[in-house]
UniProtKB/TrEMBL annotation:
Pfam families: Haem_oxygenas_2. The lineage of its organism: Bacteria, Bacillati, Actinomycetota, Actinomycetes, Streptosporangiales. It comes from Nonomuraea cavernae. SMART domains: Haem_oxygenase_2 (SM01236). This is Iron-containing redox enzyme family protein.
Length: 336
């Protein structure tokens, strides 16, 4: 197994943080520089991502005891405050609605999502190198697919809990490793000649790609934001089926075989079913039990859609000008 190591720092916060994380936990550390509330600040997003990663696979050059080290949790709280402020600036808090109106408002949010269509571009115009870059961006989440939302399961009960478990069980392949969505995505990466090891491209992606994953972790790890996590997941499921159909068509156009496209083909059918479960059984059910959480739920959905739009606004202009959307040079290619 390839070691997972801390990436290169991207500013004073990560330089200070990573230096500390490579030491033994427990010693008093000088305070970190303050973090600006900016969704596209590479220093903030990478620092927060690294803090969250300690709750997932961790880093081989970081002592596991850092995960619950109080001094690091204080640092993470400071970073989260800046991130939440940035999200609140970018995504206005929706007006709460009654539980029976949750489905309608989720549909309105999804229908109103605008911005350049990455999936249409990938289907018709993307070069092989651009598709490989697209997969590199997505690898930051897809190699841990479903994990951030799984944090919410023990914070639910009854019907909404059962609905979330049903969705997550599919994401994890129904108990079969080869059918896990993260494993299917590895097949896509290998077909494209990419490194399919966990976290291989963490140092290459822009801050908005990290912000997409950071929002999922923020919502999943805080009980007060469990409604936002459910709304976020519902928005993903509601806007997934047709884009994944286009991704599969685009990859076939570029020579992708059945193994390469299976990840996308799987989501065309699965997410059409998941959408209904997520919206009605999970979100409406949760809102019925917790009507005070409807604003939080809708905000989580709006965050998912807004971050995706901002990400598309980063990659599309660069691809249209023939430039890379990643830090540094384009990813090294190998034959399909």
């Amino acid at each position: 197994m390839i070691p997972i190591r801390l990436p290169e720092a991207r500013g004073p916060i990560t330089a200070h943080l990573f230096e500390r994380l490579r030491e033994a936990p427990g010693a008093t550390a000088p305070p970190l520089p303050s973090a600006a509330p900016d969704l596209e600040d590479p220093d903030l997003q990478l620092a927060l991502f690294a803090c969250y990663e300690l709750h997932y696979q961790g880093f081989d050059d970081v002592d596991d005891r850092w995960e619950w080290e109080p001094s690091l949790l204080r640092v993470r709280a400071m970073l989260e405050r800046a991130f939440e402020e940035a999200l609140a600036r970018a995504v206005p808090w929706p007006e709460p609605v009654g539980p029976r109106d949750v489905r309608r408002r989720l549909n309105e949010l999804a229908a109103a999502a605008d911005g350049p269509s990455v999936s249409a571009f990938m289907r018709r115009e993307a070069t092989l190198e651009q598709f490989r870059e697209f997969v590199v961006h997505r690898s930051i989440y897809h190699l841990k697919e479903a994990d951030p939302h799984t944090w919410v399961i023990p914070r639910l009960r009854g019907g909404p809990k059962a609905a979330l478990v049903e969705i997550q069980a599919d994401e994890y392949g129904g108990g079969r490793r080869e059918r896990m969505h993260a494993e299917l995505f590895r097949g896509t990466m290998r077909h494209l000649g990419l490194d399919d090891s966990y976290g291989a491209y963490l140092g290459r992606v822009p801050p908005i790609t990290l912000a997409i994953s950071n929002a999922m972790s923020l919502f999943g790890l805080h009980r007060r934001l469990r409604g936002a996590a459910l709304g976020h997941l519902a928005a993903l499921e509601m806007t997934s089926s047709q884009p994944n159909r286009r991704y599969a068509m685009g990859l076939r156009r570029l020579g992708g075989d059945a193994v390469a496209t299976r990840f996308y083909d799987e989501h065309v059918q699965a997410d059409a079913v998941h959408e209904q479960i997520a919206v009605h059984d999970m979100c409406v059910g949760f809102a019925t039990e917790h009507p005070e959480q409807t604003g939080v739920l809708l905000w989580g959905a709006a965050c998912a859609l807004t971050l995706e739009r901002l990400w598309a606004g980063h990659v599309m202009p660069r691809w249209e000008r023939g430039r890379t959307s990643l830090a540094g040079d384009s990813v090294a290619s190998s034959p399909v």
